[in-house]
Amino acid sequence: MTSDPIVTRFAPSPTGYLHIGGARTALFNWLYARGRGGKFLLRIEDTDRARSTPEATAAILQGLTWLGLDWDGEPVSQFEGMARHAEVARAMLEAGSAYRCYSTPEEIAAWRESHPRQPFQSPWRDKGPEDWPDAPYAIRLRAPREGETVIDDQVQGEVRFGNDQLDDMVLLRSDGTPVYMLAVVVDDHDMGVTHVIRGDDHLTNAARQVQVFDAMGWKRPVFAHIPLIHGEDGKKLSKRHGAVGLHEFAALGYPAEAMRNYLARLGWSHGDDELFDDAKALEWFDLSGIGRAPARLDFKKLEHVSGWHIGQMPGDRLLIELDAFLSETGQPALTQRQKSWLTPALDALKDKAKTLPALLDQGRFALVERPVELDPKAEAALDTVSRGMLKSLTAALQHASWTRDDLEQAAKQVAEENGVGLGKVAAPVRAALAGRTSTPSVFDMMMALGRDETLARLNDQADQAG
């Protein structure tokens, strides 16, 4: 006997950008389904028409695509399912698991004022057709009044809610529109969702939602309510902590695969493993590894993870990542000439870079064109004596075979002839090749730029010697 295939879903509201917490929720759902050969579905919960925008929906889809999370089928619009949601409410009414409530907003408010800290109890719950007025009515769930609603949560454990603390939830408003809580249940059932993995701020919603599942005789999904993400200070994550939108992390230059690794570890663990690729994440991820305590966003740890992934990437993959980063941030794309100079240096550069902007900064020498503009420190490094040494070096390099050993030997020879250390020769070379004094190894730069470009840049500065 084979078990039913796993089906998870990510169901964001399109009211803004994709929050880092939402991105992690999507990742957990994706890992759980994909790691078990299941389906990962996407539902846009756009019933709040006043706040839902097509732009926000597009931003969410773009964020998920950037993060590398693919979904099965077309995204489902919750708003477009309103007729189906209303149909279920009316079916519950016919079955007796829901009832007509004619209470007005004023009557409900007055009841609550006279019964503080108690859930609303509708006087219409037990009335029949003979008592129904000719007036608009809401459809309410006939929820159990005694006992408990129990949820066996995969993260939180067994969670109990006293039924006397839960009111008879409205399913269909008096204007005929279904409520969000009903829509979620109907959509999860109709989409065949087997596992609901979401933030623990939805835990109280789950108590009401399982009552709808039970009333309809539908199988409950497996619930896993994951703790929220907090800032480094332990407080609920907000803009004061820095980047909170996934697009902001993309713009800061963290590669998508590093974000997947980091977000996977944000509240979930597999022993002491911190650094891993997608294959390992898909193999290891399980709901039992999710902790109950809120996770803390740690930018230093994110940088460490990002640096490791950049260091693991081959050059061609890094170029793709750099192109995507430049596009994301609205910067000009790399030219073929720039790529031809940067590519040979990537192996030497990537081990020191923790982000893509840092990698570009390290490789700036390959991105500038002649005449290379000098910053103040580079200008200071190119005095008359230094330019004279550059002149000697260009002469020595004219006939050198362009290998690292020969380049280093030529530089050492010039240093000896001038009675200085190698560093005194390297400083003006850095300035001439990159226009700055903080650069990768001068020999890495020379190898990457090649003979013609290197000699041209050195000559540009040597020719200004007195």
Automatic annotation (TrEMBL):
Residues 6-303 form the Glutamyl/glutaminyl-tRNA synthetase class Ib catalytic domain. Gene3D superfamilies: 1.10.10.350, HUPs. A motif ('KMSKS' region) lies at residues 236-240. A motif ('HIGH' region) lies at residues 12-22. Its EC number is 6.1.1.17. InterPro entries: aa-tRNA-synth_I_cd-bd (IPR045462), aa-tRNA-synth_I_codon-bd_sub2 (IPR020751), aa-tRNA-synth_I_CS (IPR001412), aa_tRNA-synth_I_cd-bd_sf (IPR008925), Glu-tRNA-ligase_bac/mito (IPR004527), Glu/Gln-tRNA-synth (IPR000924), Glu/Gln-tRNA-synth_Ib_cat-dom (IPR020058), GluQ/Sye (IPR049940). ATP binds at residue 239. Catalyzes the attachment of glutamate to tRNA(Glu) in a two-step reaction: glutamate is first activated by ATP to form Glu-AMP and then transferred to the acceptor end of tRNA(Glu). Belongs to the class-I aminoacyl-tRNA synthetase family. Glutamate--tRNA ligase type 1 subfamily. This is Glutamate--tRNA ligase.
